[in-house]
Amino acid sequence: MASGTHMTKMLIPVDGSPNALEAVRNVVGRFTNDRSLEIHLLHVRAPLSQYVSRFISKHDRAAWHRDEAEKALAGARAMLEKSGISFAAHVELGDKAVIIDRFAQRLKVDRIVMGTARKNSLTRLIEDSVTNRVLELTQVPVEVVAGQAISVIERIGIPAGLGVALGLLVAAMD
Hints:
The chain has a single domain, classed as Rossmann fold. The chain is an alpha/beta fold. The chain has helices spanning 18-31, 50-53, 58-82, 96-107, 121-126, 130-137, 152-173; strands at residues 8-13, 37-45, 87-93, 111-118, 142-149. The protein is globular, with a radius of gyration of 19 Å.
């Protein structure tokens, strides 16, 4: 690399979902010929509960997490390999938003590129979105790539769940 050129580091959190793959596709489409790009894929796994962990050996837990991570990373790996873009893949355990932020800081990335579902404002307000939490936590610029719209069941389920919760709250106040 010539002196004075800056290598752009990007972190792409992936969970195997179509929306995460849309973020990878977006990066591939824009940076296929950019050799000053360093891509890091990150898959964050939620640890098993202590209750479940008591009944499964540490070795079996690690193997299960590894297998599930490989499944989640497979589509993104294939897309980048097919495009001839080099990358590093990482797997971590913990709270997704916190780990994404910490990892971005540790690698000193220039940008986090995240895929997210298209949702209405009410849904975004009530749900605990990893994307929203990353935006709140990190000082690193975040690029959000809009993926697919949420399903009809999700659109109906959130307001219905909110209505039930409000009904229970009103009933409890009586």
